[in-house]
TrEMBL record:
Protein name per its UniProtKB record: DUF1963 domain-containing protein
Entry superkingdom: Bacteria
InterPro entries: DUF1963, YwqG-like_sf
Pfam families, A to Z: DUF1963
């Protein structure tokens, strides 16, 4: 769930989960943004936008898979987002271009390609001082350039992003911490479904997590793209696209290890 006020978030968590579990759950909150499309470029946060041409440094190759160019879906201006993210943004990557394989050709022509593999997506950083608008080569899809306003929020994790060791719960009453959150938070643990979001926590709602954990912790959520009729993209039945990156790669500013995960009903 999104909160503008950390005190209100803590109060709600302790009221519903009890003092100890509530504080443990509230401590899992991450800073993020809800990305609200705007027709007025003056309302945009920096150069953040959905669709449009990529913003790449001269000489940067357009990413492709199996001879098919990927499609540009979003650009995040991390310099504009950095003041809110603070230490949650350990490096300054400048502009982040988000690509995914979505060619404007019949599916039969690329069905043999591994759409779930890491090469089906790319996140390419660019120096804002050197980046230039770069049009997508055919047959990549080009979506309307849509400025976005990044609304600063604190996000609690979806119940499926909570592990049994994260919060205290009665093992006689609940099969796991996820069950506790699902029951006591009454659906208020995450409410960003259907929204475009950056950083923070994703909303999955599919009984499985997107931000898988390793020895370094939960993977970092970079971008959540919901189905959007105005832009003309969709991810199956009520589908959502998630871009994540392993913690170690994020700390090093190595966005070559970013991954995309599409979920739908």
């Amino acid at each position: 769930m999104e909160f503008n006020d950390p005190a209100s978030m803590l109060h709600m968590c302790t009221e519903r989960l009890g003092e100890k579990a509530g504080r443990q759950f509230a401590a899992m909150a991450r800073r993020g943004f809800r990305l609200d499309p705007s027709a007025d470029a003056a309302q945009a946060t920096g150069r953040c936008r959905l669709g449009g041409p990529a913003l790449l440094e001269p000489g940067t190759s357009w990413p492709e898979l199996g001879g098919f160019p990927l499609s540009l879906h979003a650009v995040l201006d991390t310099d504009a987002l950095a003041p809110w993210l603070g230490d949650d943004l350990p490096t300054r990557p400048g502009l982040l271009n988000f690509f995914y394989l979505d060619p404007d050709v019949p599916y039969e022509e690329y069905r043999e390609l591994d759409m779930s593999g890491p090469e089906a997506c790319r996140v390419i950083p660019a120096d804002p001082a050197r980046a230039v608008e770069t049009a997508a080569p055919e047959p990549a899809r080009s979506y309307p350039a849509t400025p976005v306003h990044a609304l600063q929020v604190s996000m609690l994790p979806d119940c499926w992003d909570v592990e049994d060791t994260d919060v205290e719960f009665d093992t006689d009453e609940y099969w796991g911490a996820s069950a506790l959150i699902l029951d006591k938070m009454d659906g208020l643990d995450a409410n960003t479904a259907g929204s475009h979001c950056a950083f923070g926590w994703p909303d999955t709602s599919y009984a499985s997590r997107v931000t898988n954990r390793d020895a370094d912790g939960s993977a970092i959520h970079l971008l959540q793209l919901a189905e959007d009729a105005e832009l003309g993209w969709g991810w199956g039945d009520a589908g959502t696209m998630y871009f994540t990156i392993p913690v170690k790669a994020f700390m090093a500013g190595d966005f070559s290890e970013a991954e995309a995960d599409m979920r739908c009903c």
